[in-house]
């Protein structure tokens, strides 16, 4: 992530197309690193947390994405504003400014290279972090080392229990491509992959209405009337405001309420509310984009982001880290995340390409289609089970209890004692 973020800012070439090609190459490998970090961050937190607060802790890991979005907006605003100061007080001519803004080429490079800083700051602690106890014990078969690792992280003394290790290890022998996995967790994997896929189609299409709502709110000017640097500054400022008032609170509402409401209900609620708001925007788009109704438009737009994050955007990250057995936990999380990015590609190359000309009727149809997509995600949520209040071994069936992986209850089994891990 560090190397490719720096390399992205150094993208070279003798023509714009070659520069874009080089940039895509480095962003691909940056995505490779991020794709590894997604399941690892979720799995590490899942396997170290206790069952009473596990969902809140995993959601808090993901909620830091909201902090990152805010800082990304600030960085873009500050860098572009610094370079804009050169043009303050000068007569404005679009063609002249665009042709004499070599600084614009520096700005995006600096912003991308600064993306290496967070990864660099966390590198040392990530290298010092021991392997999770569950993986060390169940997959590597080293109960003693697992107890030492868990003791270091949790700052308590843990005793290795060979009998329980043998029991859990025996329940983890089946591979991903097996009938037993399909029977136990096939529907779960289908559920986590489909819901993340459908969510990202809608989530990454939410900027369809930006070109109308931002100017109406006075946050941006029309693109053909301002320079590239000014457009970057105003767009960054607008996204910062949306992130601060809509996106960021949604993440932390999930953190605070996930152990009270449960993952299952939050995901259902989020998909349903996103569908309602997107359908409303689609049906009333002509009415909403006028200046007289700008606050109604802004409210609907912000609430869509809020319920995406106080909903499936958070829970699709949490559930794959809890539903699957130790041997396949991070792999299944990675498959679910990858399916989400496939949905993002459909959003970028399908829906956004379809509405690129700004045709109002196309935007309205697309918003209604996205509302339907959210309702399909609502239905696919019933393929997963509630994980609140249960240990990972109980959820995945690694404790030897059959058929409990298909339970739809959010309550622990009556009389079930803690299995020693949590």
TrEMBL record:
- Record region (Disordered): 394-422
Q: Where is the composition biased (Polar residues)?
A: 403-412
GO CC field: membrane
- Occurrences of domain Major facilitator superfamily (MFS) profile (ranges): 1-389
Question: Matching InterPro entries, A to Z?
Answer: MFS_dom, MFS_sugar_transport-like, MFS_trans_sf
| Entries under SUPFAM superfamilies matching the protein | MFS general substrate transporter
Determine if Membrane is one of this entry's keywords: yes
Localization terms from the record = Membrane
The family annotation for this protein states: Belongs to the major facilitator superfamily. Phosphate:H(+) symporter (TC 2.A.1.9) family.
Protein name per Swiss-Prot or TrEMBL: Major facilitator superfamily (MFS) profile domain-containing protein
**Which organism was this protein described from?**
Anisodus acutangulus
């Amino acid at each position: 992530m560090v190397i490719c973020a720096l390399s992205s800012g150094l993208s070279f070439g003798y023509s714009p197309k070659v520069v874009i090609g080089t940039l895509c190459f480095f962003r691909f490998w940056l995505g490779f690193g991020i794709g590894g970090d997604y399941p690892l961050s979720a799995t590490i937190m899942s396997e170290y947390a206790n069952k009473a607060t596990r969902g809140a802790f995993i959601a808090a890991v993901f909620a830091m994405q909201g902090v990152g979005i805010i800082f990304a907006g600030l960085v873009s605003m500050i860098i572009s504003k610094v370079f804009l100061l050169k043009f303050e007080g000068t007569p404005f001519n679009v063609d002249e400014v665009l042709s004499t803004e070599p600084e614009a080429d520096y700005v995006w490079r600096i912003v991308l290279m600064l993306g290496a800083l967070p990864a660099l700051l966390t590198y040392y602690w990530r290298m010092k972090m021991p392997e999770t106890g569950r993986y060390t014990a169940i997959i590597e078969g080293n109960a003693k080392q697992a107890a030492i690792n868990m003791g270091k992280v949790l700052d308590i003394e843990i005793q290795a229990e060979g009998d329980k290790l043998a029991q859990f290890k025996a329940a983890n022998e089946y591979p991903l491509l097996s009938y037993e996995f399909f029977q136990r967790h096939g529907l779960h994997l289908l559920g986590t992959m489909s819901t993340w896929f459908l969510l990202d189609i809608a989530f990454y299409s939410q900027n369809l209405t930006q070109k109308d709502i931002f100017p109406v709110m006075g946050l941006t000017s029309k693109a053909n009337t301002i320079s590239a640097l000014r457009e970057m500054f105003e767009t960054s400022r607008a996204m910062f405001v949306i992130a601060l008032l809509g996106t960021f609170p949604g993440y932390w509402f999930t953190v605070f309420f996930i152990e009270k409401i449960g993952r299952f209900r939050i995901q259902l609620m989020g998909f349903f509310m996103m569908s309602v708001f997107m359908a409303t925007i689609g049906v009333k788009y002509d009415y909403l984009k006028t200046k007289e109704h700008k606050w109604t438009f802004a409210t609907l737009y912000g609430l869509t982001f809020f319920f995406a994050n106080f909903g499936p955007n958070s829970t699709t990250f949490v559930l794959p880290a809890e539903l699957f057995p130790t041997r396949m936990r991070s792999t299944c999380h990675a498959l679910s995340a990858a399916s989400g990015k496939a949905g993002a590609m459909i959003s970028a190359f399908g829906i956004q390409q379809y509405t690129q000309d700004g045709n109002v009727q196309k935007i309205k149809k697309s918003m209604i289609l996205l509302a339907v997509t959210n309702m399909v995600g609502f239905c696919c949520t019933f393929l997963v089970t509630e994980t609140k209040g249960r240990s990972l071994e109980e959820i995945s069936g690694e404790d030897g209890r059959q058929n409990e992986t298909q339970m739809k209850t959010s309550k622990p089994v009556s009389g079930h004692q803690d299995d020693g891990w949590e």
